Each structure stands twice: as C-alpha cells, then as structure tokens.
Amino acid sequence: MLSALAENPLVSIMINCKNGKPSIRRSIEGVLAQSYPRVELVFQDGGSTDGTIDIVLEYMESHPGRIRLNREPDSCAEEGFFRGLKACRGDIIAVSCSDEELLPHAAALAVERFGAHPGIGATYGDVYVTDLEGRITDTWTARPFSLDAFLRRECDPPFASSFFRKEAMIEAGLFERKWDWSIGEFELWLRIGMKYPIDYIPGVLAKYAWHSNSCSYKGFLDDETFVARRKAFFERFFDEPDLPESIRALKQQAFAGLHLFIAKVLSSLNEDSKAHAQLVKSLEYIPNGQQMYELMRRLPAWNIEMLRKHIASHLADLPPRRIVCYGAGNDFTRLLASGVFSDHTVVAVIDNFRPEGDLVEDVPVVREHDLAKIEHNLIVVTSSKWARELRTAATNWSMNHTRYIPVI
C-alpha cells in the first residue's frame, strides 16, 4: 500500500535529452509554465554537443532554483531515462522528451488525481500528436488501463502525459532492478501495473512528438529488432517463478499482440509489406480478432491461407469440438476444403442470405435465433460482416462454455 501524499507534494518533471536544440525550448517552457507551484525540472543530458546545454544554462539563470542539470554521457536514450528518474526528488514524477511539451494544467490535474485516488501508482491522459516544430497533426486518445490489455498491446499509455508516484516506481524496482534499456519504459509500466491500479484521465495533457527523427519512429521501422527484443523480454518475464498464473496464461496473447501492435504502426507509416509480415507472424499465437479486422481493412494482402493458419492456431490445443460457423460465403467453403476442421465437426453455419435449411458442403444453414437449439461448443466467425456485428465475440475467448474464434 502506498503512503499518503503530503499536502502540496513536489512534482519532478524530467527531460531526458541528447542534442535536442531544435525543440528543447518548447519542452523546457512547457515545464516552467505549469500552473502547479511546486515543480522541479530535472534535466538529464546524455552528452549534447549542439548547443543544447547553453540553452539550459540560460533558463537556469532566468529561473534560479527551478532547474537541476545532470550531465553524463549515455550509451542510449534509455540509459539516460533511468538515470534521470533516479535523480528526481519529487513524490510525483513525469517525463517530457526534448521534442514534447506538457500543457500548463497537467501537473495540477495529476496532483489532484493522486489526492483523490491515494492507492494509484500512476495516472495518464490523452495527447496531441505533433511534428518536430510542435504543430498539432492529430490527437491520440488513450484508453483506460488494464494489465491484460497492456500485455496484449491493446492499451498503450502515452508516456508524454503520464505521472507516477515515485514510491510506486521504487516498489517496482527503480533502484535495484537491472533494467533492459531496450524495453525499459514498457517494463516500468508493467511492473507498476502489477502492483497498483493505474488511473486514466480523459482529456489532453501533453503534446507527443511523432516525426521521422524521433527515436520511437526510427525504432518502429527496424521492426525485426523491435520485436526480437520484446519477445526476448517476454520469454524471461513469463518464466518468472513467482508470476501469477492468471498473468502467465496471457503469454500467447501477449506475443500475438506484440506482432499486431507493430503491424498497426507499420501500416500507419505505409510500410505495408512489413506490416503484412508481422500480421502473418501473429497467427502463430492467439491474436485478437477485432484488431486483425482493423488491420485487414488497411492491408490488401490478406488471403485464405492466413485465415486457415489463424483457425488452426486456435484449434491446435482443443479436443474434438462441435462447431457453428458464422458466414457461409466463399471463405467458409474454402476453409472446409482446406481440411482445417478435419478433427472437429461443423454442425451448422449461420447465414441470413441463404435459404434456411439449405446445405453448404453438407452443412445445414440456420438462422442466429436457432443457435440455442443446436448442440455446439465452439463458434468460428468466417465473415467480415459477422465480425463487425459480433464485436463482443471478437474479444472474448470463452462465454458459457462456448469458445469464440474470431476469423475475418
């Protein structure tokens, strides 16, 4: 349990930077403009040579006592990130990259949330997406945190709008854990989320930079390295002996979610061939059907073989089942012909465009209202129309002893 916050707690906002001259003034001024009065700026410099330090010293002179400068060459941004966190003195900690900017009310709202919800380990909000010059190009609306969704990469709190209890960071191992710098931010969220509730504040708190020179942008383009490092972490994490079984059971979904997450990002960058490759790799695990559907709308290369692999990955660990399919179109008939259901029995197919009682490859056509009358213990969605209408089925893996496999 976290201790009670002192009245008017100190908030540390850390800027981790190396050669950030083009945008550093915006980031510094975003911290100094906070409406909350007790804010310290911790500037962690990893060895800037472009004049960044001259700008920081200028602000230190004009705002005495508000900025602490730590200068130490680092091997990567993550090394500086953890050095800066450890240097923070505040009870509440936030991070702003050199091309990001907190909105003036952010710290005050975070302090208010921590006061109203004393048990939470962190809080975060939405962000404006900007270019290098700070021009707004989009809005990233986050979603409420859940550990399951975070592990599946379906929930991704923007770090630019996040505030943490320092005590929660310490409990998560800030000082004694040997952090893997290639995945440090993700693991920090994970360790805190395993111990404490995480709070979501609807509304924009910061500006998040997304451009060709940002570290995250370039990291996503090297998708094989990005995925390999995270899969190596997952292998270690899910093998931890004291890991709760409820979390260990999410391993296959976590691996699938990783591939779907990077596929979605690559698709947004118009890297369709890379996105397609990552989407195919997700089929080796247990991917979320709704996320697959959303990606399919962007990627034209989806085909029946990918559908077959997706179904096969779900059926591999199941004893013989009595299956009802949703959708009797061409995909359904081709899937039957592929033999993917050969160890099971397809007892009916639901389709509103064929006559009731019609046979499709010897499988009777029924209406959805007849489903309760049919003895079955598995549903497979083989129609994009049904997938859109059965969104609940697309994210639930079991319901009333019936397991749904969302296939689009």
Description:
- Helices cover 38% and strands 20% of the residues.
- The chain is α/β, with parallel strands linked by helices and 408 residues long.
- The chain has three domains: 11-210, Spore Coat Polysaccharide Biosynthesis Protein SpsA, Chain A (Alpha-Beta Complex), CATH 3.90.550.10; 222-301, no CATH class; 303-408, NAD(P)-binding Rossmann-like Domain (Rossmann fold, 3-Layer(aba) Sandwich), CATH 3.40.50.
- Strands 1, 2, 3, 4, 5, 6, 7, 8 and 9 form a nine-stranded mixed beta sheet that branches. The protein has a six-stranded mixed beta sheet with strand order 12-13-11-10-14-15.
- A hairpin with a 2-residue loop joins strand 12 and strand 13 (363-366).
- The model is unreliable at 387-404 (pLDDT under 50).
Observed structural traits:
408 residues, alpha/beta, Spore Coat Polysaccharide Biosynthesis Protein SpsA, Chain A, Rossmann fold, nine-stranded mixed sheet, six-stranded mixed sheet, 15 strands
Share of residues in helices: 25-40%
How would you describe the oligomerization state of the chains in this entry?
Answer: single chain
**Alpha carbon gap, first and last residue:** 44 Å
What structural class do helix, strand and pairing data support?
alpha/beta
Number of structural domains:
3
Look up the CATH topology of the largest domain.
Answer: Spore Coat Polysaccharide Biosynthesis Protein SpsA, Chain A
CATH class of the largest domain: Alpha Beta
Stretches where pLDDT is under 50 for at least 5 consecutive residues are 387-404
Radius of gyration: 25 Å
